[in-house]
Design goal:
This protein has eleven helices and no strands. By secondary structure, it is mostly helical. It has a single domain, classed as MetI-like fold (Orthogonal Bundle), CATH 1.10.3720. The protein is globular.
């Protein structure tokens, strides 16, 4: 007597394919890149929502018009600042201070960060000195800087340098440490000397990260600008905002904040463009 067994057809374990067509939930896939038109549309939508919210909040009955002007009044104030109050000169002075101070900070931080990230003995000596300064607020140095450097541009530039240089040193050190040890060991095996390894292997390998770090810290430098320019300043965006405070011109103050934000965005785009053009293989 033969035993006959029957088996049912096996059930496919593959997940069902998603239905064709657009699904809102499909936008929220983990780390899934989105197309450029959608990215632009989302940016426009975010700004439109922000401006509309600002407009309706300013128009509400519980917000005083003089202390919380809407976007239209701020836009009119911004036009008046450039057309009638020489605000362009203030903007140029602020940009000049940012560029000079950030250049000085880079000149100090990049060599130190490279040395600390490459040689543990340099990190062991310098890091205990650098790390505590990261926790000291830069504005706390204002009284000392005024006594040491006076009320001129030197005091403002020094404050902007102190605001970012310690963070740059630490971040550049971490960028340098991220260079693969195998690359360094391979170059040493091929006979490269320490100087060649540092400038022809480690620096080119870490340069994309250095540029990205500089882009992020440039934003921090802009956040210290107003603090640097509100103390005994006669020009600059911060000085204009302090003059507007005396006359309760909130629309001028908001216009100054808007200009700082737009300038910061412009610098960020410039850094991104340089990164994209210089390191095409990463994009």
């Amino acid at each position: 007597m033969s035993l006959v067994t029957t088996t049912e057809p096996s059930v496919a374990l593959n997940p069902e394919k998603p239905a064709a067509g657009f699904s809102f939930i499909s936008l929220f896939e983990f780390k899934k890149p989105i197309k450029r038109p959608l990215k632009i549309g989302l940016a426009i939508g975010a700004w439109a929502g922000f401006l509309l919210s600002w407009h309706f909040l300013a128009a509400a009955s519980f917000t005083p018009d003089a202390l919380f002007p809407g976007p239209a009044k701020v836009g009119a104030a911004l036009f008046d600042l450039f057309a009638n109050q020489s605000f362009g000169t203030d903007v140029l002075m602020s940009v000049k201070r940012i560029l000079i101070s950030f250049g000085i900070a880079l000149a100090i931080a990049l060599p130190l960060g490279m040395l600390m990230g490459t040689f543990p003995v340099a990190e062991g000596f310098l890091n205990p000195l650098v790390s505590p300064f990261r926790y000291l607020p830069a504005p706390s140095f204002v009284p000392l800087l005024l006594m040491w450097l006076g009320t001129g541009d030197g005091q403002k530039i020094a404050l902007l340098v102190l605001g970012v240089v310690w963070f740059l040193v630490t971040l550049f050190m971490d960028n340098t440490k991220a260079v693969k040890t195998e690359i360094v060991e391979c170059s040493r095996t091929l006979g490269a000397k320490r100087g060649n390894v540092l400038w022809r292997v480690i620096l080119p390998s870490a340069l994309p990260s250095y540029l990205d770090t500089a882009r992020q810290m440039m934003a921090v430098s802009w956040t210290y600008l107003v603090i640097a320019e509100i103390v005994a300043a006669t020009d600059g965006i911060g000085a204009m905002m302090m003059r507007a405070k005396r006359f309760v011109r909130v629309d001028d103050i908001l216009a100054g904040i808007l200009v700082i934000g737009l300038l910061g965005l412009l610098f960020d785009l410039v850094f991104r463009l340089i990164h994209r053009l210089s390191f095409r293989y990463l994009h």
